[in-house]
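#help-structures

NK: newbie question. if I give both the sequence and a SMILES, will the prediction place the ligand too? trying with flavin-adenine dinucleotide
OV: yes, paste both and it writes out the complex. here, I ran yours:
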Amino acid sequence: MQSFRLIRPRTAQEAVSAAAQGGAASRFIAGGTTLYDLMKLNIERPGQVIDITGIGELHRIETAGEELRFGALAPMSAVATDAVVSRDHPVLAEALAKAASQQLRNMASVGGNLLQRTRCPYFRNGAGGVYPCNKREPGSGCAAIGGLDRSQAVLGTSEACTAVSPGDWPVALVAVDAGIELLGPNGPRSMPVDALYRLPGETPQHEFTLAPGEMITAITVPRRNAGRLSTYHKIRDRESYAFALASAAVVLELEGDRIAQARVALGGVATRPWRAPAAEQMLAGQRLTPELALAAGHAAFRDARAGHHNAFKLELGARTVADALIIAAERRP
Ligand SMILES: Cc1cc2nc3c(=O)[nH]c(=O)nc-3n(C[C@H](O)[C@H](O)[C@H](O)COP(=O)(O)OP(=O)(O)OC[C@H]3O[C@@H](n4cnc5c(N)ncnc54)[C@H](O)[C@@H]3O)c2cc1C
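OV: that's the protein plus ligand as structure tokens.
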């Protein structure tokens, strides 16, 4: 049993000040669906937990303006079922609705979802010291490389780590060029969601680019980039309550019967939410056919590297992209 100090600030500024005082041992908590798990597994050992759920302004969902704005504490279920989001931005609604379970989506926040940690079994189940994991114990090695690697990444891997970035929502957000608003000890700032994630390289323990004590306050989506011709297509071992083996977030802008611009991002196959520019370039200016969709899917995996048991992800991933493109195009009025 770990003991920790619990703080319940009423404003975002109070929360950030408490984090600055608590230093590296501080953690914010929102829905708690990830953090408490990791504490029980002895992977996270915070000395101070800052419960931000009492900060009213962080719960707000705004869909009327030029950009959509989701407070970091908005529940996943509320954003997934918001009338504007589900009608005009299916890629966002579907990414949320296909994640976890209804009960979890009711508890979990859209901000906390961005910061969940990998489900790599060697990361989560080895805290007793049975298996090495560079993400959990830097420098200890990686048991997944050469081990049971069926669920591991094929894109963005390094000699130190092949753990998959587990979230669905971040993949959709990267596809629509979403941003995050932050508040930290040095004041507010914003950045693209894409810039939140690091590649593992030699330091897989550093997954995010947040500065110490920085809190996500909101997620913003430019209205122009998210549209009705979009989808989040997720393939998993069972049809609900499972993480992606491969997923694709696709947003299409059509001019007549040609693709003016395609946005494609991948989940379940990479060490971070993965934009696929090679696929996007292949599609630009073209008429979508099943053959082109599959070629674009394969282009997305051109730089992929498989291990012993996960080579199936290359073809599964390509076909997931292809199917997503067809589904999105069929949403044309
Ligand atoms: C059984 C199970 C199945 C799941 N399946 C899926 C799935 O299929 N797809 C999927 O995408 N997810 C899945 N999840 C993960 C789930 O979606 C996340 O646990 C959830 O979104 C995290 O949100 P939370 O509010 O509970 O975060 P918390 O657990 O409260 O926090 C998570 C992390 O974010 C930090 N944090 C939280 N809010 C902020 C903030 N505003 N600013 C800065 N830091 C913050 C915390 O310190 C912590 O490190 C699953 C989870 C479980 C338990």
